[in-house]
Give the backbone structure.
Amino acid sequence: MVLTAEEFSLFRHLIYHEAGIYFKESRKDFLENRVFRRIGATGLRSPYQYYRFITNGGRAELMNLLDILTVNETSFFRNRPQLELFRTIILNSIIRKRNEDGQKKIRIWSAGCSTGEEPYTISIILQEGISDAANWDIRIHASDLSLSALHTANRAEYDAAKVLTTVDDSYIARYFVRVPAISAGSPEAATPSGGRGKKELYRFKVKDAVKKQVVFDFHNLKNASGYVNLDVIFCRNVMIYFDEEEQKKLIYKFYEGLNPGGYLLLGHSESLQGWKTRFEFVYSNKGTAYRKPEEEEG
């Protein structure tokens, strides 16, 4: 089954209008696959009937469709050079500034947080980088368009292989706890090394000290977020889904949401090069970020 050119145009326009996600002609097969997957799940008979359903009151189903249109690929400590820049330059700068003004408060937004690995990584870095973190008012806002991804993020349990291959052993010991896997046949199940042939199926759960700093919420980046006075915004590998017009609107909203001197971190394939923005480019050991000036130009 295939979408006709007219049907593809209808769905492409609807998705762009609702979420800012733009599907090029080259991604027609991907969109087609996702649409027919949802048609099968709803029991409807045709793409047009499905389109009529989601545009005439079927809001919940529209959200189901949007949920499966982004690829939730993420990991703990993804893009380590950039995270090292965050730890050594950005975080230290924030700490100095807050110690000077006597306000031990940090506000960070993980925009497009997927299944939660990024905001939990940020929380761990804050725990490690702030000697008296318990005395700070730390809030990491984490948002995504995918309700299923947010459910996983809130659960804060991850398959053992994902944690063991991306998180340092010392961090695992301090910030994770082992919990039983869902079932012996679960893809999340793992056998720990050194088990001497004995299978111990388990997952890793993020500890409360890390989890309590993160607040998850549904948010469509096409709309205003309401997040202001932010010190740092992470929006990595999200803008690739938008066309240039929507990207520029998003960057403007990020700029407005940041405190003077705040930082924006984008994905490794995303750049503001060639755009007229007030952001200052920051580079250190292959890590990149963009900084909002301390003072606005007149």
